[in-house]
Write a structure and sequence with these properties.
InterPro entries: ADH_Fe/GldA, ADH_Fe_C, AdhA-like, Alcohol_dehydrogenase_Fe
CATH class of the largest domain: Mainly Alpha
Strand content: 5-15%
CATH topology of the largest domain: Dehydroquinate synthase-like, alpha domain
Protein name: Iron-containing alcohol dehydrogenase
Family: Belongs to the iron-containing alcohol dehydrogenase family.
Mean pLDDT: 96
Low-confidence stretches: none
Radius of gyration: 20 Å
Pfam families: ADH_Fe_C, Fe-ADH
Oligomer: single chain
Strand order of the largest sheet: 1-2-9-6-5-3-4
Number of strands: 9
Keywords: Oxidoreductase
C-alpha cells in the first residue's frame, strides 16, 4: 500500500478555515504560531485542558518554553472532564477574564478543545454565560483566536466549527456550530497520541467512523463528504488494529489521526444526524459514559434503519467492514450485523443494557434527543426522524442485534 511509503515526519499544512500543522513533530510548530500571535499584539493566553492531556503527552513541555521565548504570558485551566459542563466553561472563562487573555489554547481531545472554543466566545461576550451560549439565547459572531493542540484521533474538532457541552441539571447536551469557532491554528502530531489508552484509542476512532457515516448520508451530503467518508473508514479499518497491538506505532497513529481530521472536515460539510443526536442524551444522563462508546452502541441500529434510504452510499463506504454488499435496501440487517460483529471483534461488546439503560428509559431519551440543536441534526437524517423511529433505534440498541 502506498501509505507505507509516505514520510510521516514531513509536517504538511492541511488548509481549510483552520491552518492545521499535521505530522510527526508538528508540535514544534507552536513556536511559529506563538510568533504569529505576538505579531497580532497578543501577549496573554489562557490554556484550557484537563488534568492529564497537557502533561502525559509531552505537549506542554514544548508549548510552555515556546510561549515564554516569544514573550506570551499564560494561565492554565485544568478542570475539563470528559463530557465537559457549562460550569467548567464558566470557570475557565472567569479565569481568562481576570488574566486578560487575548487568545485561547486548547490542549487535549474533544472535551478540552470544545471547551476552549466556548471560552473564546465568552471572552468576547463578557456579559453572557455558557448556559446562555448552549441554550442558544444569543448567537455569537466573534471569538478570541483559538489554537487547538489535539491529543486524540477521533473528534475532528481541531478543524471544524463545532463544540459540545453538557447542562447537567437539565440532562441536556447540545451542540454549537458557528463559523467564529474555527480554530485559527491547529496541531495534529501523531506522537502526542502514543499514550492513548486502548479504550480511548478505540472509542475516539469509532467517533470518527460515526462522523462520516452520518456526513455521507444526510440530506445535505455531497460527493466530497462521501469521498472523505470512504477514506476514513478504509484507514480506520486498516490501522486501528495495529494501533491497539502496537500503541507506539507512529504510522498507525498518523493514519488514524488523518482519518479523524478528514472525518471532521467531512461532517463540517455534510453535517450529522441520528447517532450523535441520540448519543448526546446517553452521556448527558451518564457523564461517565465515553462518547465514542455511546456511539458504538447505537451505530448498528442506526445503519439498519437508514440503510434502505441510502443503500448505495453505505454499501460503498462500508466495503472494508462488510464486504460484498450490492447496495440494495434488503441488505439492512446484513450490514447492521456486520458492523456489530466488527465492533465486537475490537472488544466493544457493550450495549445500552450493559450501561444501565432499560426500555423504561426510552421515552425520556426520545424527549432529550428532540431538544433544540439535536432536533436540527435529526432534521437532516435520510429518513424522517419521528419519535417512533428514534424509540425503535434506542430499543434495537439495548441488546446485541444477533
Amino acid at each position: 500500500m502506498w501509505e507505507s511509503k509516505m514520510d510521516i515526519y514531513n509536517v504538511f499544512e492541511l488548509r481549510g478555515r483552520t491552518l492545521c500543522y499535521f505530522g510527526v513533530g508538528a508540535i514544534k510548530k507552536i513556536k511559529d504560531i506563538a510568533e504569529a500571535l505576538k505579531k497580532q499584539g497578543i501577549n496573554k493566553v489562557i490554556v484550557v485542558t484537563d488534568e492529564v492531556a497537557y502533561k502525559v503527552t509531552g505537549a506542554w513541555d514544548v508549548i510552555e518554553p515556546a510561549l515564554k521565548e516569544v514573550g506570551i504570558d499564560s494561565i492554565m485551566y485544568t478542570g475539563v472532564t470528559p463530557n465537559p459542563t457549562v460550569e467548567q466553561i464558566d470557570e475557565a472563562t472567569a479565569m481568562g477574564k481576570e488574566f486578560g487573555a487575548q487568545a485561547v489554547i486548547g490542549i487535549g481531545g474533544g472535551s478540552p478543545i470544545d471547551s476552549a472554543k466556548s471560552v473564546a466566545i465568552l471572552l468576547e461576550y463578557t456579559d453572557k454565560t455558557a448556559s446562555e451560549l448552549y441554550e442558544q439565547k444569543f448567537i455569537p459572531e466573534k471569538a478570541k483566536p483559538i489554537i487547538a493542540v489535539n491529543t486524540t484521533h477521533g473528534t475532528g474538532t481541531e478543524v471544524d466549527r463545532f463544540a459540545v457541552a453538557s447542562i447537567l441539571d437539565k440532562e441536556y447536551k447540545p451542540a454549537l456550530a458557528y463559523d467564529c469557532i474555527y480554530p485559527t491554528y491547529a496541531i495534529d502530531d501523531p506522537a502526542l497520541m502514543k499514550t492513548l489508552p486502548p479504550n480511548q484509542t478505540k472509542f475516539t476512532s469509532i467517533d470518527a467512523i460515526n462522523h462520516v457515516t452520518e456526513a455521507a448520508t444526510t440530506i445535505v451530503a455531497s460527493p466530497y463528504s462521501i469521498l472523505l467518508a470512504k477514506e476514513t473508514i478504509r484507514l480506520i479499518t486498516r490501522y486501528l488494529p495495529q494501533a491497539l497491538s502496537h500503541p507506539e506505532d507512529l504510522v498507525a497513529r498518523y493514519y488514524l489521526l488523518y482519518a479523524s481530521a478528514i472525518a471532521g472536515i467531512s461532517f463540517d460539510n455534510g453535517l450529522l444526524h441520528f447517532t450523535h443526536a441520540l448519543e448526546h442524551p446517553l452521556s448527558a444522563i451518564k457523564p461517565e459514559l465515553p462518547h465514542g462508546l455511546g456511539l458504538a452502541m447505537l451505530l448498528p441500529a442506526v445503519v439498519k434503519h437508514i440503510y434502505p434510504a441510502v443503500p448505495e452510499v453505505l454499501a460503498d463506504i462500508y466495503e472494508p467492514i462488510v464486504p460484498g454488499l450490492k447496495g440494495v435496501p434488503g441488505e439492512a440487517e446484513k450490514i447492521a450485523a456486520g458492523i456489530e460483529k466488527w465492533l465486537f471483534s475490537l472488544g466493544i461488546t457493550e450495549k445500552l443494557e450493559d450501561m444501565g439503560f432499560t426500555k423504561d428509559d426510552i421515552p425520556k431519551l426520545v424527549e432529550l434527543a428532540t431538544t433544540p440543536s439535536l432536533d436540527l441534526l435529526l432534521s437532516l437524517a435520510p429518513i424522517k426522524a419521528t419519535k417512533e423511529v428514534i424509540a425503535k433505534i434506542y430499543e434495537d440498541s439495548l441488546k446485541p442485534l444477533s
